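Forum: Protein Structure Q&A
Topic: Joint prediction for protein chains with partners

I've read a bunch of threads here and the consensus seems to be that you should model interacting components together rather than docking separate models afterwards. I'd like to see that in practice. Below is the full input, 530 residues plus whatever partners are listed. Could one of the regulars post the assembled result?
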Amino acid sequence: MATSALSIEHIDAFYGDSHVLGDVSFELGEARMLGLLGRNGAGKSTCMHVAMGLLPPRRGAVRVFGTNVAGMSPEMIAARGVALVPQGRRIFKSLTVRENLVVAARKPDAGSKHAPWTADTVFAMFPRLQERRSQIAAHLSGGEQQMLAIGRALMGNPRVLLMDEPSEGLAPQIVAEVMATIRKLKESGLSIVLVEQNPKLVFDVADDIVILNTGRVAVVSTPSELSKDGVDLRQHLGVF
Amino acid sequence: MSFWLVLTVNSVTFGGLLFLLSAGFSLIFGLMRIPNLTHGSLFMLGAYVGATFVVGLLGFQLNFWLAAVIATLTVAAAGALAERLLLRQLPGDQLAQVLVTLGLSFMAADFCLMVWGGDPLSVETPGGLGGFARFGVAVFPIYRLAIIAIAVVVALGLWLLLDRTRLGAMIRAGVDDPDMARVVGIRVSQLFTIVFALGAGLAAFAGIIGGPILSVYPGLDQDMLPLALVVVILGGSGSLLGSFVGSIIVGFIYNFGQALLPELAYFVLFMPMLLVLLLRPQGLFGRHVP
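Posted by a regular:
Agreed with the consensus. Here's the joint model:
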């Protein structure tokens, strides 16, 4: 079997004494998109924090194209081609739009098949950011901030992109725009984990689905399997 | 009339020195969230190291500006070492880091006392800048005007570095959100060392160029540190503009307070700090730090 882009193996993670992830394992195949679903507090964001090095796991491995990065610092993991679009966007508010992109620039890996991301290619994808390139990022609308957060992550020329609830708090029209972008990124061959609370958004674009429930993997499946009659998602996701 | 003018120039001069001291203090506080209590010691160390060469304690004298460069680089290197060897070992533990900087400041004070003794060293005004400039009825010491010019040049340089370079944008990103800065691949720990060395070097530079005005004596560190603290609280941490404006304000309050209300000088100095803390805790130009 080919190496997976990201493989989470038997992760246990704690915030202080509270055990937030218990023996979590799943795999993201190369050039695939994995939808990570679950209710509030199910451990989705924690998974992303562990993968990015923001929360070192107490046990288990995080492999990026085969290399275990568990315990490495976020900047070392970023250097291995992992980028995060964090929950709440967390753009650098006092920097200009352009500076937000420039500080995150990383040269693509040798032998990368894709044209490298630069501030200009990000602007080509999000023309609205180009119009606001010299503005302080704090003054952007929510949708623009989300685009900037995505653009900033792409500037690292990642091989694995982690997106934590990119639709959160956005108007439906903007959500559609963001989802179209995500689809484009997937088609470009990027391996993506898409964290969402809303399964409908994910079922459209993801190849694989993992559902977390109270810090454990409850379901590993595909959208088509889960869309079949008789599969009861409500016990894991609540009403939707 | 001339009294007020001279007092004003003295205030701006002192504000310029405070800016050199507090710009680094503010950046270190903004980026690393450490109130670096060695900052007064770095100022004093710079003054002593520079004075050593200016006065010729080693048996030879150096040009004032060469001595200032040596003092700046020596103390910057010492700052970088302290950051790497001590502060680095206590990541995320701010209380421990503060206590380490406090301990270091005591050690630095004793070190200076041991090496340079208890008598004040007076530093001569660098050649060519002695004497006075006359503007109409008012007469100003040229060296004080030179300090103002130097502070403005350094402020412009720092502003260019922070506002116009990628390194500067990275430092600001680190001040904004250190975790996210690391997530996008910025080696924040390397920035810590750079900023610490820069802040230490600037403090040392302020110490030596302030030498001809303040002279160099044991306790200089404890005289300067609270002033830097007031500047940063007034101006807001991590903000260059805040340091600049805060320094000028404190320069005025300190000089006018000492001249007009000498018995209340410290009250006059710390009262505005108290008000800012109560009414605008992030400082005049600072952003709210969660």
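The longest strand of chain A covers residues 18-28.
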